[in-house]
Amino acid sequence: MQIKVDRDLCSSCETCIASCPYEAIVLQEGKAFVNEYCQICRICLSVCPEGAIKEVPDAQDSKDTVTDISAYKGVMVFAEQREGKVSQVAFELLSAGRRLADKLSVELFAVLLGAPESEANELIKWGADKVFLCSSDSLTSFNDEPYTNIVSKIIKEHKPEIVLTGATAIGRSFFPRVAARLHAGLTADCTSLEIEDGGRNLLAIRPAFGGNIMATIMCPDTRPQMATVRPKVMKKCACSANHTGTIVNIEVPTNGKCRTKVLETTKDADFCSINIQEAEVIVSGGRGLGNPKGFEMLKELAELVNGTLGASRAAVDEGWIPYNHQVGQTGKTVCPKIYIACGISGAVQHMVGMQSSDIIIAINKNAEAPIFNIANYGIVGDLYEIIPRLIKRIKEERG
Amino acid sequence: MKIVVCIKQVPDTAEVKINPQTNTLMRDGVPSIINPYDLHAIEAAVAIKEVMDATVTVLTMGPPQAEVALRESIAMGADEAVLLSDRAFAGSDTWATAYTLSGALKKLGFDLIFCGKQAIDGDTAQVGPAMAEFLDIPHVAYVSKINSISDTVVEVRRMMDDGYDVVETSVPVLFTVVRELNQPRFASLKGKMRAKNAQIRKLTHADIELDEKDLGLSGSPTQVKNIFAPEMKKERVVFEGKPEEQVTELHNVLKSVKCI
Ligand SMILES: Cc1cc2nc3c(=O)[nH]c(=O)nc-3n(C[C@H](O)[C@H](O)[C@H](O)COP(=O)(O)OP(=O)(O)OC[C@H]3O[C@@H](n4cnc5c(N)ncnc54)[C@H](O)[C@@H]3O)c2cc1C
Ligand SMILES: Nc1ncnc2c1ncn2[C@@H]1O[C@H](COP(=O)(O)O)[C@@H](O)[C@H]1O
Predict the structure, then answer these.
(1) For chain B, what are the domain ranges?
(2) What CATH number is attached to the domain comprising A106?
(3) Which domain does A24 fall in, by range?
């Protein structure tokens, strides 16, 4: 495949030149020209007002090893667990997976490693038709190689067309190995999953270039189609105690290699009692707080509204609050009912982590701050004027 | 001990902006930089060289201009730099990138491989673990501390979502590293001089003996179907005016949404 410019259609407007992230388009004899730096990201195709930029197939493009994609059926969710309890993200993925499976009229499978049968039953209540369970204690703590071996083996045997996992530390660590082994496409950090109209291809939508743009990724010629999805991006649908399914017990393969050993697992001692990914209300602070004391004030507000504390990367980098409170592209994705952003400008990298919150309230003294573009309620003002008064008002009312 | 650091040259995505009129990316003047996480990978490797007998090679797969990033790595203390560049690699997704790099790594030889946690243009975090699979070696992702290191065994701390694990691994091994691991050094004057004159080793498709059909776009299972601007706009109400009035409005909002 190559990207080429039709010189007759090109109007030399240079829009493509400005939009190419790889500096791969230059003016040559007065017209746009795509040089060898091109990464075929296709951004230029959509920006050219003349439609002069086109994809041109190369002779070697035809694939001689086309997998028989019709042999693959079903949607599979890898259900992550910590300390033997299934993580919330697994239930979110089962809800998303159920929707895709129903659309394709196929079964929904779940894979559960290192947890007891009672947890497998939970997965069935949340929509799984079949759970592949390997309850061996040796799998309770996460280890890349055994996880890769078992999951690859299950996929090879049962041939699901779609495989999903959480974009968590665990999923992002071992799923690339599974995809490498199976020569399957793996789309990272998806925010939305759809089935192509009139077809069976998965359309996986994800942010790219630091959240500045969104891309739709497809794997038209290979199976399975794999994707990781961030926690809190998919909504959990109600579970049904009546949904039935079967559990298939799997033995731990004896021949697999394991060259790493987990010696110790430590949980963060948290500064707040509520985990930010579970919280219904998050009071989040940024550089606008000006100093670490600002978080003491936010913590007081958070406690009054039964919430927890979040932060921008700028505040974390200043050392005002630990990293596990960071919201955004390199922090956590959160989806609370209410997100109160205090002294946060609203960089895209922050917004990708919180923009699906139900209600966003922003307090910022700069009326032009981008955070106001996504806020449902905006307060233009100094947070040190607003928040102490608000705390006082709430306390007075409670008496 | 032979250490290879895989680095990527990326557009500084913090500087990329969207033109709101045309919904297109504005890249004018956006500099190309070494992927920030990869700086921590280079630092980790150079720091090991200071305490034990080791050499550090930096490797990148990219267009010819990526040579700039390699020279910067030499300035930071790497001994040798390798540029893997060929038109046949264009359009590689993470599968094909990891596969191609693993071909080069087999040719170069290695004991330890360091990668960044993720590259900030794609943010996939997949290339490191996938390379380890192709090379049939273990990996540990999200390394935030190296507790101990010998020629045969390394003990590291890896970040998990709810805490951290201490992991012991045999060598050879691949690590992907996070910012907490270290503080990347600045290039010394001597390093900069060395970087200017350093010979960059160039490898092409012909040097790494991999099947053409597994490279570039034809080896990539994923395809970008289209690209669009994120939707951001919501209905919004803005309260300006005196703090007392704003607080009254805000208090009412919190009550109406049953937050208090
Ligand atoms: C690869 C990459 C990944 C990143 N990942 C993340 C991420 O995960 N999460 C994240 O948050 N960021 C991330 N960033 C950083 C991001 O680009 C921004 O730099 C950061 O979010 C800015 O934080 P801030 O809004 O707190 O600070 P600033 O941008 O400095 O904004 C401070 C705001 O406070 C306001 N303010 C100041 N004083 C007051 C006052 N007294 N009262 C009211 N308002 C006041 C100002 O008007 C301003 O809008 C990432 C960047 C990169 C390059
Ligand atoms: N083209 C490349 N050349 C060398 N190393 C790369 C390349 N792409 C990715 N890497 C390495 O893999 C890591 C993760 O990248 P990614 O999977 O693209 O997020 C980076 O931090 C680099 O260490």
Answers:
(1) 2-219
(2) 3.40.50.620
(3) 2-56
Is position A267 within any domain? no
Question: For chain A, what is the radius of gyration of the CA atoms?
Answer: 24
What is the residue with the minimal CA distance to atom 31 of ligand 1?
A345
Cβ(A98)–Cβ(A82) below 8 Å: no
Give the pLDDT score at B154: 98
B7 lines ligand 2 (CB under 6 A): yes
Question: Encoding tokens for residue A250?
Answer: 């799997």
* Interface ipTM: 0.90
Q: Strand A225-229 vs strand A162-166: parallel, antiparallel, or unpaired?
A: parallel
Ligand nearest to the CA of A288: 1
Our CA-based measurement puts residue A183 at a distance from the nearest CA of chain B, in whole angstroms, of 7
Distance between CA atoms of residues A65 and A74, nearest Å = 22
What angle (nearest 5°) sits at the alpha carbon of residue B252, between those of residues B247 and B254?
95
Does CATH place domain B2-219 in 3.40.50.620? yes
Element (H or E) spanning B245, and its range? helix B243-256
Asked if the structure places residue A64 within a domain, the reply is no
| Contact check, Cβ <8 Å, B213/A63 | yes
Round to whole Å and give the CA distance between B242 and B244.
5
CB contact under 8 Å between A260 and B168, yes or no, is yes
Q: Does residue A99 share a domain with residue A215?
A: yes
Model pLDDT for residues B100-115, shown as the tens digit of each residue: 999 999 999 999 999 9
